[in-house]
Design a protein that fits this description.
single chain; 209 residues; alpha/beta; Rossmann fold; five-stranded parallel beta sheet; two-stranded antiparallel sheet; 7 strands; 48% helix; globular
Amino acid sequence: MQDVLRRFFVLFLVGVLTAPLAARGATALLAHGRIYTNATQVSPRKAAIVFGAGVRNGQPSAVLYDRVATAVALYKAGAVDKLLMSGDNRFASYNEPAVMRQTALRLGVPDADIVLDFAGRSTYETCYRARDVFGLHDVVLVTQRYHLDRAIFTCSALGLDAVGYPAERRSYRGMTWFQIRELGATLNAFVQLFITRPQPVLGERLPIE
């Protein structure tokens, strides 16, 4: 009996260790060929989805600022018509989309071409709402490289024609932690997309024209 339990434990441990790596490998394989580093390579699309990140004292973190600035560069290059700023606003004192909007305005984007999604609390929710609330079909995803594979995988699995544009503009503090956390987040994406399939907060449709 002890031998059986020991084997079961070993198999369980191997599964726990390898499943996140396998998930990361699968998303990287899917994203291969869908990531562009030159705005002129991106065929014109309706919108860029800019994923939220940390905000402190009403100012964007380095990660978030670079996401917005990269999306603005795409917009000015004519690769997208609109910028969908999607982030967390579940608390009155914390508002990622509003900070993203102010940053884009300072960088020269007209307010009419900025759309805010206040319920993009996760990559899954952002992609889901981009499809079902904002009526998008073809999008450019703007985020850092460590997150881009999962974002492309998630949006693609939800039926969006998604390509990626990395927002790396500097070295970021804590990148090792980001990479480790991404292993679990990627495995969770598989669970959400193919097993639990949670429905985010939706509300009225607001198609981006």
